Batch of 2 targets.
Target 1
Amino acid sequence: MLSEKGWIRALKGRLEDGRELRFKEGDRLRTLLACESTVRLIVLATNGRAYTLRAADLPRGRGDGQPLRLLADIGNDADAAALLIADEEGRYLLASSDGRGFIVRGRDLVAEKRTGRQVFTLRPGEEVVTALPVTGDHVAVVGTNRRLIIFPLAEVPEMSKGSGVTLQKYREGGLSDVKVFTLAEGLSWRSGEREVKLPDPSPWLAHRAGQGKPVPAGFPRANRFSPR
């Protein structure tokens, strides 16, 4: 489990959610990831660098854990954007605050050195927002301006590293969240304890790099498809 302020630790067993977990004052859960102790993990930082950790090396128990910066050389000017299981043949979608992104193979995220590997080439003021496994055939992108666009996954190139392509264009603001999903199953998001499904995403279908349309009624005010 990874907290918002960058503390990481492991617990044996399974957790349905993180509501029963305790953190330092002012901190809270960012990512809860179920995995085996034998796997390697990828931390993608906001500076576009990918760092590799071994799950077996994470501090265990119900204490506060350990600062992520003690396990990887993440600079003070960057934070964790995503925590992933390192599947070398897996595909992951990376997205930045400026609405750019690309697909990368897991093997291109693995770094043997504590200093990590530069994967996303960023512009001044730009940050990596998220990285997520690719499962599905379409991409949904929502901006901080509460506009949504949906387009085929095939329009996003696969690269080993780079600056990516425009996923969504903004007059103001930037990218808030991304989801990869199967169009035939409909787009869904979390609203409190409920899973809400948008059975007909067709009004938001377009080609990559468009501005999109206002989000559907009931879309979370946090502008995210699921809580962090």
Target 2
Amino acid sequence: MSMTSQLRRFDYLAWPEAQKAAKTEGSTLVWPFGACEQHGPHLPLATDNLFAEKILRKVLDRIPNNNPIWMLPSQVLGFSPEHESFPGTISLSAKLLLDLVMEVGKQASSMGFNRLLFFNAHGGQIGLLQAAARQLRVQCPSMAVLPCFLWSGISPLQDLIPSKEREDGLHAGLAETSLMLSLSPDLVGQERPCDGEHSSNDSRATPPEGWSLEGAAPWAWLTKDLSTSGVIGDSKGSSQALGKELEQVLIDHWAKLFINLLASNWPPV
């Protein structure tokens, strides 16, 4: 962890520093969200948490020190019922995670923080955190709440990841395997599975025209419906070089968004 990242750790502050931080105009807390869930036979259970935390630290290193932004400790257990049939997955209930977000959010608001941003890297809890953010905003109207997903809005992905994999490589495929090879290569196993919709001979696994695994007309799938390895996608072409490119575009994207946010008085509350 760099010195800048250490200075950004909210839980490394003493209480007078925390009090001063919360009362600073534009004060912003960022809460990384991951999960403890299977990521195929070649990636660690902590994949999403590692992505959220490591990318966020690198993003914070880009932000000038005079900006009032701090990182909460990562939420390492998430909402992962789709992966519960695979050993290693530890999933919180939707109610428990919602209650947790509300408890932490209300305390952040009572301290005086202006913004709370969820920096989530687990696709299976996007909707839940969006609902939590809306509910929290109602109960804490003086604090803006911004639920973000690590991979959303990254336009350079269309040049780095083939369209089929962008659409169907939902879990432990090309993008996630490559990014892990860049961030923590020692945690990546030797296997490069291709599984899920890509390899199934069962016509039921292929959505009819207009429907999809995710997107405009989605299906509430479970991983066991699609995959025997836990992978949904194709990791065969993954590489550290691709991972470095993915890492760079993610950092560039979120650093720009964070800097733009901190330079503004948006959202209005």
